[in-house]
């Protein structure tokens, strides 16, 4: 059925369809509609909504609910995402699945509450301290918010790690026509009380924690820990743990790292963009081609881990890459790892305004003339 | 028809986004493709507010409007701010309390605020009068689709009052149909 649906509403609906029964959060623009809709829907379905005192407690409650067997999520924006970083690291280290939605607004600090940004790209990768795996998905349409929210739950359960859904204010508040096919990702395969060590991983490097309360007693900690979950600083044990956590996401990279390409086959210049900027870039590619420029678009749907293979394939025949993003070059730094030195140009905005298609076309013209930073 | 790009502009609290949302909803109900995007400041009242609706029969690549076909301005500041983005020959719908005709555009300068006050009394309503004027002059969506959208989610809570404001707006704009349709066809 065709309907006009908002990005944040699509996120809430996908969570409910995916069997999320626990939401704890602290409302913040531009993500508040997610909390609002979860608050309205969850109690009617036997679920739990808790408005917490802050974002630190929000993610703490979500991790607890998840350990107890619930599919759980929270939603926030940059300031709240900053507060969640400690518990995000806890979730990654203690291998607790959950979904964290960050609807990006201008920052740092309180910043620009109602204005879009893509300033949390690196925070989603390295916001919490220490070496850790990270998964962040970046939808660019209302339909894709629905699709990737559901996928976030699936991935989070399968890899037993928090998954971040990262989109800008424009996508969060955008309403567009959708015809959604409801998804219902299979429930988490959780181990019963089989007596195995809770942090003993299988060949896929994923530990299968038993659910709390299912009969097996086990220990959960943010300290370095061994397979039984008890604290240790034995270098062999904690070194192996760091490597295994990195490996479990790396092993899944081919499956996780999604990207879309558009008209890259014969492109001289490939524009890299995500979120609302990718929508502008798609228009810019068509407009530029109408003017005789051979432009293409590479759109990562997964920001972390970055879809490097797909990017290499999409840019193999190109002379240059233009990264357009609403920050001062956070993904551009990652892109530079995969292309010859000097071949990445940037079009960057950190003023709370989206990047328009005409700006991308104009930047492409200047890049073709040899410029590198087009601000 | 390719994309039709419409912007509603005014001050926060005037219902600019609500009117635009009803239009986008109506367009989808009428079988068209539509997007709605908005931009507003941190204030809950006052401040600049705008909302864009793009109506098309094809996929809409980028939902933020430029080269506007129609600008519906509920405040003089909204008009002044976005008039440069109205394409030559585009349609301006604005309130006669603060606006004069603008050369180079097709203008429907109407007593929007006064009509709203006469129809629904104090409080919001100018947004729905303006929406009625938009639907009447452009014919982009059938008025029945807007009525259905209003009935599903009446702004202000009263379907009867909202419909009264909508219909008052469409009656107000009837004399401008000919010129507006020519502007749309350009």
Explain what the structure shows.
The complex is a heterodimer of chains A (375) and B (186). Chain A has helices at 7-17, 32-41, 55-67, 78-93, 121-126, 142-159, 169-173, 235-251, 253-256, 275-290, 308-315, 330-335, 357-368; strands at residues 3-6, 20-25, 48-51, 71-76, 98-106, 112-116, 136-137, 162-168, 175-178, 259-262, 269-272, 295-300, 302-304, 320-325, 344-348, 373-374. Chain A is α/β, with parallel strands linked by helices. Chain A has 2 domains: 3-178, Rossmann fold (3-Layer(aba) Sandwich), CATH 3.40.50; 260-374, Rossmann fold. In chain A, strand 7, helix 6 and strand 8 form a beta-alpha-beta unit. The longest helix of chain A is centred in the middle third of the chain and has 18 residues, at 142-159. The model of chain A has no long low-confidence stretch (mean pLDDT 94). Chain B has 186 residues and is an alpha/beta fold. Chain B has a domain at 4-110 and 139-152 and 179-185: Pyruvate-ferredoxin Oxidoreductase, domain 3 (3-Layer(aba) Sandwich), CATH 3.40.920.10. Chain B has 7 helices and 6 strands. A 6-stranded mixed sheet of chain B has the order 2-3-1-4-5-6, with helices on both faces. In chain B, helix 3 runs antiparallel to helix 6. The longest helix of chain B has 15 residues, at 159-173. Chain B is globular. The model of chain B has no long low-confidence stretch (mean pLDDT 91). Classes of the chains: A alpha/beta (375), B alpha/beta (186). Chain A binds chain B through residues 2-4, 29, 113-115, 170, 173-177, 276, 279-280, 282-283, 286, 354, 356-358, and chain B through 21, 24-25, 28, 31, 33-42, 60-64, 66.
Element order of chain B: H for helix, E for strand: EHEEEHEEHHHHH
CATH superfamily of the domain at 4-110 and 139-152 and 179-185 in chain B, please?
Pyruvate-ferredoxin oxidoreductase, PFOR, domain III
Q: Using DSSP, what is the number of strands of chain B?
A: 6
CATH-scheme architecture of the largest domain in chain A: 3-Layer(aba) Sandwich
CATH secondary-structure class of the largest domain in chain A: Alpha Beta
Order of helices and strands of chain A: EHEHEHEHEEHEHEHEHHEEHEEHEHEHE
Large-scale geometry of chain B: globular
Q: How many alpha or pi helices of chain A?
A: 13
Indicate the mean pLDDT of chain B: 91
Helicity level of chain A: 25-40%
Radius of gyration of chain B: 15 Å
Class from helix and strand fractions of chain A: alpha/beta
